[in-house]
TrEMBL record:
Key word Transmembrane present: yes
This protein's record includes keyword Repeat: no
Listed name of the protein: Mechanosensitive ion channel
Annotated Mechanosensitive ion channel MscS C-terminal domain residues: 378-460
Residues passing through the membrane, by range: 63-85, 112-135, 141-159, 171-188, 218-235, 256-275, 281-299
Boundaries of every Mechanosensitive ion channel MscS domain copy: 302-368
Compositionally biased spans, kind Low complexity: 1-17
GO cellular component: plasma membrane
Keywords tagged on the record: Cell membrane, Membrane, Transmembrane, Transmembrane helix
Organism from which the protein derives: Hyphococcus flavus
Sequence similarity: Belongs to the MscS (TC 1.A.23) family.
Main location class: membrane
Cross-referenced Gene3D superfamilies: 1.10.287.1260, 2.30.30.60, 3.30.70.100
């Protein structure tokens, strides 16, 4: 028992020392735990590690796999058949399809397809590869991403080559390319759901259901309206071309139809776009009336010009091709748009006149009913001219030497008045092409009259007065007598 007691004491001693050492080790634990809690509050270290681990596992499981390697090899191998069939497809389009397409958008579309024949061939090869991989049960994520990006590039390139509009090219780039990129990275559905979540209420339906309009609906409306608006413009140009080719219609009626199409087709495109996206028109009855009233007050002048344009075309006061003069501007009408009339002057500038000014202020139409107009060339001769009738006949004959002066009606030289300094005439002559200018032909006629008067030695007098002095002061008489005496006295040498 005594021998065992020390052993028991010895066995207890290490246990006590071990407990003391554990206590010594565990003493700093409160400080360490406090630091870890502070780090966890600032940065979720475990969450970051878990996310990085998940991403690494995804890369290992999804990207560094045999299926992805096969898809990458197919993407590289697809370039070979595309480079082989692309030039042959281009030759077929250029030789067989493009020459048979009518001029305009269809011809540009055919040339555009020929220009990007190789990318189109690559697109076809990749689609065949996707179908084959899906049939084999293999993954197609990488090739599908490549197809999405290639589709976006083809669409943007086609828009650039066919429409030839910087605006629509930018729209295609900033709309199609982001959509394709989002779809390629697999986040398009998330973006769509996020856009659909941003919505505001616009009223209730007849059944009491709350109606909402989201950011996704707005994006869809803009895209659909853009496509329909472009189609409306294309349809408008085609219909306008057909209308202008009909000789039985008057110019004013053609302009009226063109103006109606310019306004009606965009409105139809907007209403159709809203109808396609499911916009509830019934919920905006009161709100739409208030907005319409505000727009009407704010656009009063624009609406006035719009209806004034219809009035001008309907009453045929002016029409394209007429020679008019308004506010000192002289030219011929080239276009009659919804808001203004384009007047091309003799200087080559375009004078844009609002439609309502023609109705409020009036206009001089040189070719309203007839393009034959009469011009004037006034001149005066001295009272010493004897044969005034003969002079008038010669002036009329001289006017006929000018090419633009008409023989019928014949020129007429009228004696207008016996003026203070001259006998005044007015040569009246006619032309039938006022669009070529009136001042220039008047100048030619007056130049010819000038040459005729100098040839006949007929004086064109200056303004003159006869001065008769009844009486003079004595001083003036003395100066006059002195001057006469000095002139009569011989000059001494």
């Amino acid at each position: 028992m005594q021998d065992q007691q020390p052993e028991a004491e010895q066995s207890q001693a290490p246990e006590q020392s071990t407990d003391q050492s554990d206590q010594q080790v565990e003493q700093p634990e409160p400080a360490a735990s406090g630091t870890e809690e502070l780090e966890d509050e600032i940065v979720d270290v475990e969450g970051v590690r878990a996310w990085l681990s998940d991403r690494l596992d995804w890369l290992q499981n999804q990207m560094f796999t045999l299926g992805v390697a096969i898809e990458a090899a197919i993407l590289l191998a697809a370039i070979v058949p595309a480079a082989f069939f692309g030039p042959r497809l281009r030759k077929i389009i250029q030789s067989q399809i493009a020459p048979r397409a009518p001029y305009g958008v269809l011809r540009r579309a055919a040339n555009a397809f020929a220009h990007i024949a190789t990318p189109i061939a690559l697109y076809v090869v990749l689609q065949i590869a996707v179908i084959a991989l899906q049939a084999a049960g293999s993954s197609t994520g990488l090739i599908s991403a490549g197809v999405s990006l290639l589709t976006a590039w083809i669409v943007i390139r086609l828009v650039t080559l066919v429409i030839r509009s910087p605006f629509w090219s930018r729209v295609a780039f900033y709309v199609v390319w982001p959509i394709a990129a989002l779809d390629a990275f697999g986040v398009l559905d998330d973006v769509v759901r996020q856009l659909d979540s941003f919505a505001f209420p616009i009223g209730e339906s007849e059944d009491g259901v709350q109606q909402r309009y989201s950011a996704l609906d707005l994006v869809r409306t803009i895209i659909v309206f853009g496509v329909l608006f472009w189609g409306a413009r294309l349809l408008n140009s085609l219909i306008t071309g057909r209308i202008n080719a009909i000789d039985e219609l008057t110019v004013s009626f053609k302009a009226l139809l063109s103006k109606i199409l310019d306004v009606l087709l965009p409105i139809i495109a907007l209403v159709a776009a809203l109808q396609i996206v499911g916009f509830p028109f019934a919920t905006l009855a009161i709100f739409g009336g208030a907005v319409g009233l505000g727009i009407g007050l704010g656009m009063q002048r624009t609406v006035s010009n719009f209806f004034a344009g219809f009035t001008l075309i309907a009453d045929k006061s002016i029409k394209p091709g007429d020679v008019i003069e308004i506010d000192g501007a002289y030219g011929w009408v080239t276009q009659m748009n919804a808001r203004y009339v384009s007047l091309r002057t003799r200087d080559g500038t375009a004078y844009l006149v609002p439609n309502d000014r023609f109705i409020e202020e009036g206009v001089v139409n040189w070719s309203h009913d007839d393009r034959v107009v009469r011009l004037h060339a006034p001149f005066g001769v001295a009272y010493s001219t004897k044969d005034l009738r003969g002079l008038a006949r010669k002036v009329e004959e001289t006017a006929l030497t000018i090419d633009r002066v008409l023989k019928t009606p014949a020129p007429r030289c009228n004696l207008m008045e016996f003026g203070d300094s001259s006998v005044n005439f007015d040569l009246r002559f006619w032309i039938n092409d006022p669009a070529n200018g009136t001042k220039n032909v008047t100048s030619d006629v007056m130049m010819a009259i000038w040459d005729l008067l100098h040839e006949l030695e007929i004086e064109i007098p200056f303004p003159q007065r006869d001065l008769h002095i009844k009486s003079t002061p004595d001083g003036v008489k003395m100066v006059s007598e002195t001057r006469e005496a000095a002139l009569s006295k011989p000059r001494e040498e």
